[in-house]
TrEMBL record:
It comes from Paragemmobacter ruber. It comes from the Bacteria. Residues 184-194 have a biased composition (Low complexity). This is PAS domain-containing protein. InterPro entries: DUF1457 (IPR009922). Residues 174-201 are annotated as: Disordered.
Length: 210
């Protein structure tokens, strides 16, 4: 499992005591008003400056394409080039596409936060690289759909990029997002821009390659 605190800053000799994913989740949770998901326009870069190198912003376009709207320096280092505007699948082995999209669907629905345990195979000159990708849903703004903000914790430098990951395990923390029609049936006015979330539960195993 990736330790996170050994990420990009750690490679450069800086002391990092908290995993980037923990910093992001703390900020995301602090922006929630009651059970509602945080709005995307309330994510302030200066508030997560300590983990921006590991941050990603994932959006699904109307044609179904899942793109990286933002990719931090440590994420780009895995691929060896700027990934902003590229498909999220560029970080994964070709055979992982269906598994990745199935996991993302739970995030885009606003019903789960996701933690993907990842690994990139070792080679003659490449050490094994493990990582953890955290994805947190954000409430849509206006006509835009649900966006995921995320983080890639790496367990070491991505030697000889591009490195591509396989998905070893997916954990999901249920949020229990209520669809607008359910809210309306309960007598409350639906608000597509700010979906509410029922009481969730502890993370559960969604998929494992073991």
């Amino acid at each position: 499992m990736a330790r996170g605190w050994t990420g990009w800053q750690g490679w450069q000799g800086q002391t990092v005591r908290v995993a980037p994913s923990a910093l992001l989740r703390r900020h995301w949770q602090g922006l929630r008003q009651g059970a509602a998901l945080p709005r995307r326009d309330r994510i302030l870069p200066r508030s997560i400056a300590a983990m921006l190198d590991h941050a990603i912003m994932v959006e699904r376009r109307y044609d179904g394409a899942v793109l990286l709207r933002y990719a931090g320096m440590a994420v780009n280092a895995v691929h060896g080039q700027d990934l902003t505007g590229r498909p999220l699948s560029a970080l994964f082995e070709t055979g992982m596409r269906d598994r990745l999209l199935a996991a993302l669907e739970m995030g885009f629905s606003g019903q789960r936060t996701l933690d993907l345990q990842l690994s990139s195979e070792r080679g003659l000159t490449r050490p094994l690289l493990t990582a953890r990708m955290t994805l947190l849903p954000l409430a849509p703004v206006g006509m835009e759909g649900v966006t995921l903000i995320g983080c890639l914790d790496l367990d070491g430098p991505p030697i000889l990029p591009p490195r591509r990951f396989r998905i070893d395990r997916v954990l999901g923390e249920p949020l229990g997002a209520e669809p607008p029609e359910t809210q309306a049936a309960a007598g409350s006015a639906p608000d597509a821009a700010a979906p509410t979330v029922r009481r969730g539960g502890p993370p559960v195993l969604v998929w494992s390659g073991a």
